[in-house]
Amino acid sequence: MAPKKPTIVLVHGAFADGNGFTAIVRRLVTDGYPVIAAPNPLRGLSSDAEQLKALLNSIEGPIVLVGHSYGGAVISTAATGNPEVKALVYLAAFVPETGESVQELVEKFPGSTVGESLKPVPLPGGQVDLYINPRVFHPHFAGDLPADEAALFAIMQRPSTGAALGEPAAGPQAWHTIPSYNLISGADRIIPPAAQEFMAQRSGAKVQVVDGASHLVFVSHPDLAVDLIQKAASENA
Predict the structure, then answer these.
(1) Pick from 181, 174, 153: which is nearest to 22 by CA?
(2) Within its chain, how far is the Cα of 133 from the centroid?
(3) What are the extents of the domains in the chain?
């Protein structure tokens, strides 16, 4: 009897939502995988991770956990201590060590345009929501997508609080004990490829680099993303 296929849990990052996973979900479901596109509140790293942890605890059987961008930081915390999470897949994602923030990692290497791309919206209580300015969303965030498709993603983006991006990762990070896989976007203007490669090497991940790919590599190259997710599933069954 063939082993049960793991549930694939997809976690979007900042300035995005679950719609970006549409092509990935279609192929995974066609191939017989249970799939959940988890909502990511983008309010604070610890609280976002706690919400994901609760969702993971409700799933029966093995899990392959997938994160894009800031979602990588969320899965790195949420998976810790869950024996059902068999693999972590990072899609152009942050892979922090304890005490590191997304903001710190994005500034570690030159080449990111994120600082100049942000459009702040002040919130009550002194907090701020951050969006990618739609005027630069295409060249800075989604450069290898058609302009009309990038415009749709700019419209549908969800903001992150400034606090979430600046909050250090707390507690042990799951990549120390769970096998990890990284899809690196070779022309990323949000997380510089050098930063992605540094984090992947540090975590001992299996790596695939997609030359010319933007930060939305999983949208422009969904088949490569699915292939890596299925590789993670099959190698850790």
Answers:
(1) 153
(2) 20
(3) 7-110+163-235
Q: Distance (Å, rounded) from C-alpha 139 to C-alpha 113? A: 10
pLDDT in tens, 20-41: 999 999 999 999 999 999 999 9
Query: What per-residue confidence (pLDDT) applies to 4?
Result: 85
Nearest Cα residue to 93 out of 81, 117, 77, 115:
77
What CA–CA distance (Å, rounded) separates 226 from 215?
16
* Angle at CA of residue 126, ends 94 and 50, nearest 5°: 40
Take residue 9 and report the two structure tokens written for it: 């849990």
- pTM (two decimals): 0.97
Look up tokens 């969702």; give the residue. 55
**What's the rounded Cα separation, in Å, for the pair 194 and 208?**
13
Q: Please state, in angstroms and rounded to a whole number, the distance separating the CA atoms of residues 237 and 231.
A: 10
What is the C-alpha separation between 154 and 131, in angstroms, rounded? 9
CB of 94 within 8 A of CB of 69?
yes
Range 7-110+163-235: architecture per CATH = 3-Layer(aba) Sandwich (3.40)
Q: What is the DSSP letter of 127?
A: -
Residues 80-117 pLDDT 10s: 999 999 999 999 999 999 999 999 999 999 999 999 99
